[in-house]
Amino acid sequence: MIKKILFIVFLSTIISCSKRETSEVNTGTSKEFENIFSFQPSKLIKVKIDEFTPYRTFNSQLIDEDSNNPILVWENAPLNALEFYSLKDQKLVKRIKIKKDGPDGINGPIRGFEYLAKDSILVSNGRRYEFFLINEEGLPYKKYVVYSEDVDKLSVPIVYDNKPIMYSYPNVFVVSKPDKDYNSEGWWNGNMLLKINLQNKEFEYLLNGPEKYFDKIHGAYFSHHSMVMNEDEEIIISYPIDSDIAIFNPENQNVDWKYGGSRYFHKIPDWNKPKSNKDEKFYIESNSYREVFYDKWRDVYYRIAYRRVDYIDKNGLRVNWNYKLPSIIILDNEFKKIGEYDLPKNTYYTRNTFVGEKGLYISINHEENSNADENYLTFQILEPVTDI
User: Which of the residues 294, 345, 347, 376 has the least number of beta carbons within 10 Å of its own beta carbon?
Assistant: First the structure.
């Protein structure tokens, strides 16, 4: 219970029946696909944690510099620390505490990170517009301020597991949210991405949201677009409101659109009559998309779709967005859909999910899962299966 309180405080070619979309026009209807890729639950990874570590986090990263001993980096917000866990030995390797204040601090609490190298970890603070490179001792040695005086271009950088910092030397790309009213038209007409040059400290906000949604309202909970970078250094974007995914080329800033939707729902309606403090209800009772992952070992993409549930359950209790019904959409390297795998109800905490050589690692620490244990970081490995 203590940890719950602490946490709250803070591939292949397939036969396709239709041509892929390459414009902003929503495909509108679910497309048939050949189901040739799925998952098989295999072993559980259980890593013992101490009483100071939350069993869920907003930010984590798998480091696979040694393929025989992958390391999970875990953001510990209560301690303002980064923790390194060996998945092979299933134990803590080291903890880097980061000072909030003073000459050796980062001006506040940590709010996201990206491990670049042993002595180069990029961290963001609670101010959102400040980033620091820190060394393995947690000491900052370079600062980046990314506040824009141009209010038309101003967006808020946000770093979560489903919004990782993406590194392409010498630049990093950070998912951003337009600094506008969620419940007014025009929120999507803003910059969704921040580019920072780590060498010269220059930065730029770019990538407008989908033009087809400029006059639509979806509320705050629908602002959680997810991005990931592939081996070709393209940025794949999963907008929560669209069955299509966007492929953004940072070099020429072109955007291409491909179908990547669920078999369970098609077009997602906008919020016709937005009401104050009702955006969570609208989100939970709507279908949506969120996380997108790139599996470099198999050259495929995983996108998680969420089906609506009632905001008030059969027992008269209010639920949160973790109760929506998830499925994993699989796309090949040409963005053809090759599978959709249903996850069981109220079992996985999908916000703590990452890809490794053995498959998709997904946290079992959902609040309704009787096997969840706040004394462990516990992940179910979903092993990819292609001979189905």
Answer: 345
